[in-house]
Amino acid sequence: MRSTLGRLTVIAGTGGDGVPPSEGFLDALWLRLRQEAREAYAHAPMLAPLFVESILNQPTLEAAAFHRIAARLKNDLVGLGIIIDAFNRAVEAMPEIAQDLRTDIAAVVERDPACARFIEPFLYFKGFHAIQTHRLAHWLWHHDERDFALYLQSRSSDVFQTDIHPAARFGRGIFLDHATGLVVGETAVVENDVCLLQNVTLGGTGKDSGDRHPKVRQGAMIGAGAKILGNIEIGASARVAAGSVVLRSVEAGTTVAGVPAKLITRAAAPTEDQILNDLLYESFAYTI
């Protein structure tokens, strides 16, 4: 996370970039995105409408994100304005959605070696767009708008190739790498700082009702194609290898692999450097 923090500088409000001095410190991530959009505009002028409409003509990071995601989700039945209005209602009632959005962007830039700029997940990565869509659907689900929530689940499945039940609970700092084929069941829980790769299933066994889906604890990573089935726990900082089928709980800090998954390694105690990185990440989540 120190490398991510190093790309952002919190700049004292001077009235630049359309933000009045009275607002004090400016949003460093928003300033960085605008800078990257201007640079991208200069290098790819044929994409000018994308950069201008999605970022440069938007007043805030939240407005820009909601516009970009709604532009991908809209269709002839449910238009851009309806989806943006829903995002605005959700973030007004639950400001944590805006904080989570920022932390999710940082998580992608920090963990994805193929991602060099903040503008990349913001404009292009369907995993980032899918998790923000889920955050809206989750809010709608718990505020008596379940049909709208289910519509967004269905639409996200069509557009982003992810199928996340609106009731599933996600923390912040979520990285859906590639995202294609991700399936998450109704009673699943995914805590902070989790990485889920493509074709992961957090599903049920088909034999249970009620609380029947996995609980993935903080910092875990689930490899591509892994199937985690049943009301079991993937412990904090655990690793599930690609293609594994997990039918039993996995202890914190361990790595499992195979069909069915078996223990491969146990993690060493965290180093001082790892602890410092975690603390910086927590700080980032609340200051950006």
TrEMBL record:
<dbReference type="InterPro" id="IPR001451">
    <property type="entry name" value="Hexapep"/>
</dbReference>
<dbReference type="InterPro" id="IPR053376">
    <property type="entry name" value="Serine_acetyltransferase"/>
</dbReference>
<keyword id="KW-0012">Acyltransferase</keyword>
<feature type="domain" description="Serine acetyltransferase N-terminal">
    <location>
        <begin position="29"/>
        <end position="133"/>
    </location>
</feature>
<comment type="similarity">
    <text>Belongs to the transferase hexapeptide repeat family.</text>
</comment>
<dbReference type="GO" id="GO:0005737">
    <property type="term" value="C:cytoplasm"/>
</dbReference>
<dbReference type="GO" id="GO:0006535">
    <property type="term" value="P:cysteine biosynthetic process from serine"/>
</dbReference>
<dbReference type="Pfam" id="PF00132">
    <property type="entry name" value="Hexapep"/>
</dbReference>
<comment type="pathway">
    <text>Amino-acid biosynthesis; L-cysteine biosynthesis; L-cysteine from L-serine: step 1/2.</text>
</comment>
<dbReference type="InterPro" id="IPR005881">
    <property type="entry name" value="Ser_O-AcTrfase"/>
</dbReference>
<dbReference type="Pfam" id="PF06426">
    <property type="entry name" value="SATase_N"/>
</dbReference>
<dbReference type="InterPro" id="IPR042122">
    <property type="entry name" value="Ser_AcTrfase_N_sf"/>
</dbReference>
<dbReference type="InterPro" id="IPR018357">
    <property type="entry name" value="Hexapep_transf_CS"/>
</dbReference>
<dbReference type="InterPro" id="IPR045304">
    <property type="entry name" value="LbH_SAT"/>
</dbReference>
<keyword id="KW-0028">Amino-acid biosynthesis</keyword>
<protein>
    <recommendedName>
        <fullName>Serine acetyltransferase</fullName>
        <ecNumber>2.3.1.30</ecNumber>
    </recommendedName>
</protein>
<keyword id="KW-0808">Transferase</keyword>
<dbReference type="InterPro" id="IPR010493">
    <property type="entry name" value="Ser_AcTrfase_N"/>
</dbReference>
<keyword id="KW-0677">Repeat</keyword>
<dbReference type="GO" id="GO:0009001">
    <property type="term" value="F:serine O-acetyltransferase activity"/>
</dbReference>
<dbReference type="InterPro" id="IPR011004">
    <property type="entry name" value="Trimer_LpxA-like_sf"/>
</dbReference>
